[in-house]
UniProtKB/TrEMBL annotation:
<dbReference type="Pfam" id="PF08531">
    <property type="entry name" value="Bac_rhamnosid_N"/>
</dbReference>
<feature type="domain" description="Alpha-L-rhamnosidase concanavalin-like">
    <location>
        <begin position="296"/>
        <end position="406"/>
    </location>
</feature>
<dbReference type="Pfam" id="PF17390">
    <property type="entry name" value="Bac_rhamnosid_C"/>
</dbReference>
<dbReference type="InterPro" id="IPR016007">
    <property type="entry name" value="Alpha_rhamnosid"/>
</dbReference>
<dbReference type="InterPro" id="IPR008902">
    <property type="entry name" value="Rhamnosid_concanavalin"/>
</dbReference>
<protein>
    <recommendedName>
        <fullName>alpha-L-rhamnosidase</fullName>
        <ecNumber>3.2.1.40</ecNumber>
    </recommendedName>
</protein>
<dbReference type="Pfam" id="PF25788">
    <property type="entry name" value="Ig_Rha78A_N"/>
</dbReference>
<dbReference type="Pfam" id="PF17389">
    <property type="entry name" value="Bac_rhamnosid6H"/>
</dbReference>
<feature type="domain" description="Bacterial alpha-L-rhamnosidase N-terminal">
    <location>
        <begin position="115"/>
        <end position="285"/>
    </location>
</feature>
<dbReference type="InterPro" id="IPR035396">
    <property type="entry name" value="Bac_rhamnosid6H"/>
</dbReference>
<dbReference type="InterPro" id="IPR013737">
    <property type="entry name" value="Bac_rhamnosid_N"/>
</dbReference>
<feature type="domain" description="Alpha-L-rhamnosidase six-hairpin glycosidase">
    <location>
        <begin position="412"/>
        <end position="738"/>
    </location>
</feature>
<dbReference type="Pfam" id="PF05592">
    <property type="entry name" value="Bac_rhamnosid"/>
</dbReference>
<dbReference type="InterPro" id="IPR008979">
    <property type="entry name" value="Galactose-bd-like_sf"/>
</dbReference>
<dbReference type="InterPro" id="IPR035398">
    <property type="entry name" value="Bac_rhamnosid_C"/>
</dbReference>
<dbReference type="InterPro" id="IPR012341">
    <property type="entry name" value="6hp_glycosidase-like_sf"/>
</dbReference>
<feature type="domain" description="Alpha-L-rhamnosidase C-terminal">
    <location>
        <begin position="742"/>
        <end position="813"/>
    </location>
</feature>
């Protein structure tokens, strides 16, 4: 509801879904038509007739506002896809080459569209990567499609409206296939070259044409297609792409091209028995980034600096002699002499020979004037590109640009403060989050590109506050279900070829199975992701219980890459195990599974008791040796008994002071520390830590020039020092939670009720945060005014908020110059409930 009035709400709704747009606009829906339902629900699941495949449905929603006035949405549409696998006409095909063959294959097919075309759709399923073209035009702007799945269990197909690209009469379809993760030819420690699914890429395509007379014709992949090798002479998702422009075949994907020399195709079995629609935001070239500086070493060597670290590709435009070999090396760092340094990102690479240099594209010129190259089937993590040519070439600053690529999720959050370093930390966090979103969350875009579970569970809130990422996680949870062993075990990287079932996959990492659905539920208010994954969470928790009946588990990696102090793995892993059991119990209650709700609540209690019996010292109120991680993890995950919580929190604050208000945590402690302080009355301490600018801190990276988050607090570290990791990224979420205080309300998820717990931290003059949830844009912002603070909250239509004002002794909260009658919530906190609207309070 776009209704800015105070108290705006929805009294009732009515939904129409039908195949005739005119009928729907008249208030009739032949597929689904509800009554006028008295309800404020913002999310209602479709409950009409079974939807048919290949059908366009129109829909409209009417709502009645607080004055019972009805308004209607525009008539909008969606279209169904294949519906069931049985609707595929095509067959999986590939060329005659084997998986070791380096050049990427071209496929083409010419067909006749005999009648006047009304509409046309292309459905393409691929094991590997593809670029589809019709009559010489590339279809769509997706990159690296389809997204990576466990290819022998689930394959994704992509749908395009290609009506505009087709013509009556003859048409040509062209397909270029890349390897992606399906045919990993590079060799590294994770053995993706030995993946059980590995094979020469293959595809299945249906081009479904509907003619004006209502008849339907499907042009499909079959034996009639032809194939040839392309100028993409090598492509590896992991390392780079090599392109020989001398091998270009002009017009290969157009009707009149002479394909007499082309070969036939072979039929292949379907890579899996589960081909489903890719229902998610695609990867795109989201941002073009020009070079900020440019150096000419000599007439065969140049250097470009993009000014920021990104995930993506570079594009070079150059003129030179035929056969000139240009090498483009991509790196995050430079040696002192200005040459690129790849030593922080290539150490897990195990090359056989020298033909596949790391993060190095190779472009061989055709000599036909100005030529451009940008890889189609690879991406990298980099800021610098060093260009080396086998013969002299002339390059200028504008001859190379970078493209920041990632899953193109919509930005829905904003943070802006009076501290420029904090603002830069937030931007760097977003840059690393996006650099690690390629249809699944990754650890880093250069060294690994692995779907490390731990990094992703840490970053879930950071992602969801700032980006509308639900579709990526729905897909990734399906990847989890594909990978889960019958006994419940998950691998540490998802998807995987089999690596990671034996290392790194304890609850501190693979709790993704519980933590991610739970957060999606909190942010979007949709319980579907909970029911979709319920059995999987349960199997997972049961497995830990079977293996570790005492309630304590030592399974895990622990507080990865800490500053200095090490904390016991058993404590941190058991905390995650406790979180999983708790989420499972709450989920059971939400889904109406009462017996399970009780059972797992008891289990959670058992874990909690075991942890506290072993680690909590009742005399000192310290956990273990009292490191930052040991104190903040139990606080954050809710393990600390209520009666000693404030003492434990005070001990944490003391410890942080002892550590000179600097971090002494690794990956797990980073998730907990700022929240554990802030939620227990020490936001000022948390902010001190969060805004530090010397070692070790986020700000230390920033003042040293970082535009992304690093893998190591120590910039000079010899290992674990990728410069684009999201694993220390919880600060992104904390800037919304800790200072703006925007939280979803577990009892009314999806921000139906918003919790606002702002903190007016010293040293900030002003602060603004906003997050667009399912009901609209929520704002929490404040600025200092004399001795007081002016606080503005915006609560979207059809939602409410509970505001917890921080006050000091004698302070009052005013609205329109009148004292607001608040409730005392806790010491120094006044509670006030508001309906939708914009409010500016003065706290003085
Ligand atoms: C990755 C991490 C990951 C870790 C697991 C590293 O190589 O880059 O981010 O979580 O391994 O220990």
């Amino acid at each position: 509801m776009a209704d800015l009035r105070q108290g705006a709400l929805q009294k009732a709704y009515q939904v129409y879904v039908g195949t005739d747009s005119a009928e729907v606009s008249r208030g009739k829906g032949d597929a689904w038509e509800t009554d006028k339902v008295s309800s404020a629900a913002g999310l209602v699941a479709y409950n009409g007739k079974t939807l048919n495949a290949f059908t366009k449905y129109y829909w409209r929603v009417d709502v009645w506002d607080k004055e019972d006035v009805r308004s209607s949405s525009a008539v909008t549409s969606f279209e169904t896809g294949m519906g069931t696998m049985r609707n595929w006409q095509g067959t999986w095909i590939t060329d005659e080459h084997d998986m070791k063959t380096k050049p990427a294959p071209y496929f083409r097919k010419v067909f006749e569209a005999g009648k006047k075309i009304k509409s046309a759709r292309a459905y393409i399923a691929v094991a590997g990567l593809y670029e589809l073209s019709i009559n010489g035009q590339k279809i769509g702007n997706h990159r690296l499609d389809p997204m990576y799945t466990r290819f022998d269990r689930r394959n994704l197909y992509v749908t395009y409206d290609v009506t505009a690209q087709l013509q009556s009469g003859k048409n040509a379809i062209g397909v270029l296939l890349g390897n992606g993760w399906y045919n990993h030819q590079s060799t590294a420690v994770w053995d993706f070259d030995k993946a059980p699914w590995r094979n020469r890429p293959t595809f299945c395509l249906d081009l479904r044409i509907t003619y004006e007379d209502g008849s339907v014709e499907t042009v499909q992949s079959d034996r009639s297609w032809k194939s040839s090798l392309s100028p993409v002479i090598f492509n590896s998702i992991y390392t780079a792409e090599h392109y020989d422009a001398r091998l270009e075949q002009d017009g290969w994907n157009t009707v009149n091209f002479d394909d007499a020399k082309w070969k036939g195709v072979i039929i292949r079995s379907s890579p899996s028995n589960n081909i489903v629609s890719q229902s998610m935001q695609p990867v795109r070239n989201v941002l073009e980034i020009p070079a900020t500086t440019f150096v000419k070493f000599n007439d065969t060597a140049y250097h470009y600096n993009l000014g920021r670290n990104i995930s993506g590709v570079s594009k070079i435009t150059v003129k030179g002699e035929a056969g000139t070999v240009i090498r483009l090396r991509h790196a995050e760092r430079l040696y002192d002499n200005g040459r690129v340094d790849l030593s922080n990102i290539d150490q897990h690479y195990r090359p056989v020979g020298t033909e596949d240099p790391y993060q190095t594209d190779i472009f061989i010129l055709s000599g036909k004037g100005e030529e451009t190259f940008m890889p189609k089937f690879n991406y990298k993590g980099f800021q610098y590109v060093e260009v080396k040519a086998s013969k002299p070439i002339k390059l200028a600053k504008q001859n190379l640009v970078g493209y920041f690529m990632h899953s193109d999720v919509e930005p829905i959050g904003n943070i802006s403060t009076s501290n420029p370093v904090v603002n830069k930390i937030w931007s760097a966090t977003n840059a690393s989050y996006l650099s690690n979103l390629f249809g699944y969350p990754t650890d880093c875009p250069q060294r690994e590109k692995n779907g490390w579970t731990g990094d992703a569970q840490i970053a879930i809130e950071t992602g969801l506050y700032s980006f509308d990422g639900i579709t990526i996680y729905e897909k990734w949870l399906a990847d989890h279900r594909d990978e889960q062993q019958p006994n419940g075990v998950l691998p540490s990287i998802i998807p995987t070829n089999g690596w990671g079932y034996e290392w790194g996959n304890g609850p501190d990492w693979t709790s993704t199975i519980a933590v991610i659905p739970w957060n999606i539920y909190l942010f979007y208010g949709d319980s579907k992701i909970l029911s979709d994954n319920y059995d999987n969470i349960k199997r997972y928790v049961d497995h830990i219980d079977e293996q570790y009946p005492t309630g304590l588990t030592t399974w895990g990696l622990g507080d990865w890459v800490p500053v200095k102090s090490k904390s016991p793995v058993e404590l941190t892993s058991s905390a995650y195990y406790f979180a999983d059991a708790t989420i499972l119990s709450k989920t059971a209650a939400i889904l109406g599974k009462t017996a399970d709700a009780e059972k797992y609540e008891k289990l959670a209690q058992k874990i909690k008791n075991a942890v506290n019996a072993k680690y909590l010292n009742p005399t000192t109120n310290l956990y273990g040796a009292g490191t930052q991680t040991e104190l903040s993890v139990p606080l954050y995950w809710g393990l600390v008994p209520a009666d000693v919580k404030s003492q434990v929190a005070a001990n944490l604050a003391k410890r942080v002071e002892f550590d000179k208000f600097h971090l002494d945590v690794g990956l797990l402690g980073t998730k907990a520390i700022l929240n554990a302080l802030g939620q227990n009355g020490y936001t000022d301490v948390a902010y001190k830590v969060a805004s530090q600018e010397d070692f070790p801190s986020w700000g230390w990276w920033i003042v040293n020039g970082a535009t992304t988050l690093y893998e190591n607090w120590n910039i000079k570290s010899k290992y674990d020092i990728s410069l684009n990791h999201i694993m220390f990224g919880e600060i992104g979420a904390w800037l919304y939670k800790g200072i703006g205080g925007i939280f979803p309300d577990e009892t009314q998820p999806g921000f139906k009720n918003v919790l606002l717990k702002p903190h007016f931290v010293p040293n900030l003059q002003n602060y603004e945060s906003s997050h667009t949830g399912p009901y609209g844009k929520i704002t929490s912002s404040w600025r200092r005014k004399g001795k007081g603070v002016s606080y503005t909250a915006v609560v979207p239509a059809n939602s409410t908020a509970t505001i917890y004002f921080p006050v000091t002794a004698g302070q009052q909260v005013y609205l329109s110059n009148k004292v607001v009658s608040t409730t005392d919530f806790a010491v120094d906190t006044k509670l006030y409930k508001v309906e939708a609207g914009t409010y500016t309070f003065e706290i003085k």
